[in-house]
TrEMBL record:
This is Unnamed protein product. It holds the Pfam family Amidohydro_2. InterPro entries: Amidohydro-rel, Aro_Compnd_Degr_Hydrolases, Metal_Hydrolase. It comes from the Eukaryota. It comes from Aspergillus oryzae. Residues 5-155 form the Amidohydrolase-related domain. One of its GO terms (molecular function) is hydrolase activity.
């Protein structure tokens, strides 16, 4: 039994899918309280990891500001998620800057006028990359994430 409704369909696809923004995995700051102590048990995470292990999903580490509210620490509540992915599926990870850093669309919901422009977010990209470098745990995984895997996936 899996916790992603499309799991079997994705498993049967002839090509892998790219799961942007960590496949929707959330940091503690965005999780409901029952998952604060165990963010790896959040719905969908084990299925995402399983799909990647089967070569059916490529997980893009991007848009951490979409997965976490913890901007003051450059999204440090994402550490257990990224550490787990780096340990479990290092061959299926890629990095994406998610630039330009758009808003969350909340303003658009309040005012659907297409002439009203939503501002961009100010993101500490260097801080995020420094954390990410530490969280992946080794130079080998870092090189896979930043060079080897993208070269293989996007050839």
């Amino acid at each position: 039994m899996t916790d992603i409704a499309l799991y079997d369909s994705i498993l049967d696809l002839p090509v892998p899918v790219i799961a942007d923004h960590l496949g929707g995995a959330l940091g503690r700051s965005k999780l409901s309280p029952e998952f604060h102590e165990s963010p790896l048990s959040q719905p969908g995470f084990s299925s995402l990891t399983s799909l990647a292990k089967h070569g059916r999903a490529i997980v893009k580490i991007s848009g951490l500001y979409r997965c976490s509210k913890d901007s003051a620490s450059t999204y440090s509540d994402m550490k257990p998620i990224i550490e787990s992915l780096a340990r479990e599926i290092p061959y299926q990870l890629v990095w994406g800057s998610d630039w330009p850093h758009t808003g969350d669309g909340a303003a658009r919901l309040k005012n659907p006028d297409i002439n009203v422009k939503e501002g961009f977010r100010s993101i500490d990209n260097l801080g995020i990359l420094q954390n990410l470098r530490d969280w992946v745990g080794s130079e080998e995984v870092w090189e896979k994430l930043m060079r080897d895997n993208p070269a293989r996936f996007y050839r």
